[in-house]
Here is the input.
Amino acid sequence: MIYTINNDVLTIVKDLFNLNDQGVYDEINNEFLRCNQVLKNKNIKYEDLQKALIPTKDLFYREYAFWLDINLIENSFYGREIMTHMLPAMDKQSTYSVLTGDYIDILNTDNSSEMLLNLMREQIHVVNESGEISCNQYTVVYFNRLTDSQFKSILNALRPKKWFYGYTELFDSSKLKSYLSLILVNKFIKYKDIIILPNPDGIMDGEANVNIHGYQYEENGYKIRSINEEAFYTFLSYKIETVLLEYEDSAYSINAIYPKFQYMKELEFEIPDDKWMYLNRKTVSNVQGKGEIMDKLADELKNQEAFKSYIQNNLCNNYIYKLEKNEFGVLKFCECIGLRTQNGHYRKTLISFKYFPVERKLSLITIT
Here is the structure.
């Protein structure tokens, strides 16, 4: 199973070597096997990194962006200065991805800088005052999965620093979250007391462990494990949920489990009647069902056709996760879709699909 795929490198490789769909399929799966082997050689199981690679639907965890004013950081190597205070506050039992990047204006319109400042203002919890001049004066450190206690530990470590502007909780979809997905880059995975990071000079097989960031990982009790950067950014990069999704992203993901570049919008979607009965049935004794989830959904989603239409309309707006061809040859993947609830909120729901490439069809398996 491949938890997630970032298609940036694949797009370059496909164009550079003029690969057809079979060639892309072979490239993805061969490189994934090699990536897996390198992780094993470094005593890391790919399966143990799942929490760092797919969104959480558990309300016990949240995604956070920490905002830092680089105009107030005297050290020109401001990333190192920030991590000097963050690393000691991170616990050594959790697993999550850390993304970083400057809050730059890539829109470049007459009022885009002010618009981006307003996006930040609408969602930020200010801790220390900052003289806002431009969005470009801020840098962001993003965590994809923090408990309340883990968040407070980092917050308390940063609070005394005048350059720490504030934080944003980003569990739900928003314009700000979508924009951050465009500008932030995966920095490292923290797997308990191990830091997994890219090595731009790394040879895939038997590479050394190199700290390209120059951060004080080892001084804070972490072991460094670096991996070839093409493999890191393709298979070990968390993708922040966004409404600005490119159609090619899901097509590359589907190409990983079947040698065909298939756009999601071209697929038919079905919910068989027996599956609908399963979704609405409560689990009793040995009889399984998902009625406990369905009961909490908004009334307009209680109808089979309305539920199907809602899922179908959202298929093209979400990343694909947990790509798999199982031992029976069944092709499967998941999407994390927000379902409206009775109280007007959205429930993050992982929906599993069976993929039929010849029929160009998706069939719902289950929801969690």
Observations:
- Residues 247-367 form one domain.
- The chain is about 30% helix and 25% strand.
- The CA atoms of residues 127 and 166 lie 5 Å apart.
- Residues 21-41 form the longest helix (21 residues).
